[in-house]
Design goal:
By secondary structure, this protein is an alpha/beta fold. It has three domains: 217 residues, Rossmann fold, CATH 3.40.50.1100; 69 residues, Rossmann fold; 78 residues, Alpha-Beta Plaits (2-Layer Sandwich). The protein is 44% helix and 18% strand. Helix 9 links the parallel strand 7 and strand 8. The longest helix is centred in the middle third of the chain and has 17 residues. The radius of gyration is 25 Å and the shape is elongated.
């Protein structure tokens, strides 16, 4: 790294810290691929490169900071062990790397944490304590256990060692794609964007750092504007649904982050679907936030060379299936049509023939004779069809109308 960021010497993490972290991490974590994404570039109008941090063993960048922190513990601290509070990727990053280093790990998780996340964390050898209805209650309890047992607390983002570890992502990105002029970084607690900003600005001082938050949790966006964050609601990007950015990340962001943009749920869903369908890879909501930013704000990135961090791939299988199906609905490839006709034998066969002759697939049929807005001698059909695209769907709607069965799209 050529520059030492001397103008920001007061920052709590230095380029030297990130360089030292890179040495510690060498051979201990995946050096994940950085690939040009031609189709995504065509869709967004930017020249996109993707850093696939979802290919880490625990499917998240969190391993970097966790290992860097754990590797610097004293012998006494290693013997006693560490504690962290998390319901997601940080839990697995700490548990996995603690086991690798022979450090006893305790993870406190809220009572409502999905069973699969609890089991994954236990599988890495951690002691899991379920406590509290909320994350705040779990955190309070974690600090109580820390004091009682003399454990070292491993914070998910408000720790210099964690931030330095996360910064190695940017060093690798710019080594593989030195022509990047913009990095788009998901923001939860701020550890990733803090480390990335320090490393990237050291290597390339004029590079643009853009943070991305879910609109329901605009913590850093509000902080940088001097506003009170208004956070709450259910977002698919739960990994960045943080109500308050860390104290250290805010200090770094004020100095180095150029802009923070907000994205809505449909763009997050679309980004997850694009990663699956175009890049053939799995992204969780937070992991897809960078791509969502380009979909939501294309003018900001048009013509620029953009590095995206696909920072995590831990998404529930049922949620992923729902997102992909909803994507087909948005594209007009799955549609529900309602028809009302005479309740006579052969009606459904005739309707099916119209649909089949045009090359569409019938997924489901619901037959309702009891709806009061349907004549007593009539019947209502809801037909779920799969087509090539929205135009194909419209052709079928027109053909059904011409055959005397005009449908209503639901």
């Amino acid at each position: 790294m050529a520059d030492d960021l001397s103008s920001h010497a007061a920052l709590p993490v230095t380029v030297a810290d990130i360089e030292a972290a890179a040495v510690r991490l060498s051979g201990q974590i995946e050096r994940t691929p950085m690939r040009s994404a031609r189709t995504l570039s065509e869709i967004t109008g930017a020249k996109i490169w993707v850093k696939f941090e979802n290919l880490q063993f625990t499917a998240s960048f969190k391993e970097r900071g966790a290992f860097n922190k754990l590797a610097q513990l004293t012998e006494a601290e290693r013997r006693v062990g560490v504690i962290a509070v998390s319901a997601g990727n940080h839990a697995q990053g700490v548990a996995y790397n603690a086991a690798k280093l022979g450090v006893p790990a305790t993870i406190v998780m809220p009572l409502g944490t999905p069973f699969t996340k609890v089991e994954h964390t236990r599988r890495h050898g951690a002691r899991v304590l379920l406590h509290g209805e909320t994350f705040a209650e779990a955190t309070t309890y974690a600090y109580q256990v820390k004091e009682r047992e003399g454990l070292t607390f491993v914070h998910p983002y408000d720790d210099p060692a964690i931030i330095a570890g996360q910064g190695t992502v940017a060093a690798e990105m710019l080594a593989d794609a030195p022509d990047l002029d913009t990095l788009v970084v998901p923001v939860g607690g701020g550890g990733l964007i803090a480390g990335v900003s320090i490393a990237a600005k050291a290597i390339k001082p004029d590079i643009r750092i853009v943070g991305v938050e879910a609109r329901m949790y605009p913590s850093l966006h509000a902080e940088l504007r001097g506003e009170e964050p208004q956070c709450g609601g259910q977002t698919i990007a739960e990994g960045i649904a943080v109500k308050q950015v860390g104290r250290l990340p805010i200090q770094i962001a004020r100095a180095l982050v150029d802009e923070v943009v907000l994205v809505d749920e449909p763009h997050l869903e679309q980004a997850i679907a694009l990663y699956a369908n175009v890049e053939k890879t799995v992204a969780e909501g937070a992991g897809a936030a960078g791509l969502a930013a380009l979909l939501a704000h294309p003018a900001k990135f048009a013509g620029r060379s953009v590095g995206l961090i696909l920072c995590g791939g831990n998404i529930d299988a049922r949620l992923l299936a729902s997102v992909l199906t909803r994507g087909l609905v948005r594209e007009g490839r799955i549609s529900s049509l309602r028809l009302i006709g005479d309740d006579r034998p052969g009606l459904l066969a005739r309707v099916s023939k119209v649909i089949g002759d045009l090359g569409a697939n019938i997924i489901e049929v619901a037959h309702n004779r009891l709806a009061l807005d349907v004549p007593a001698k009539g019947a209502e059909f809801d037909i779920l069809i799969e087509t090539r695209d929205a135009q194909h769907t419209q052709e079928i709607v027109d053909a059904l109308g011409a055959a005397g069965y005009p449908p209503r799209r639901l």
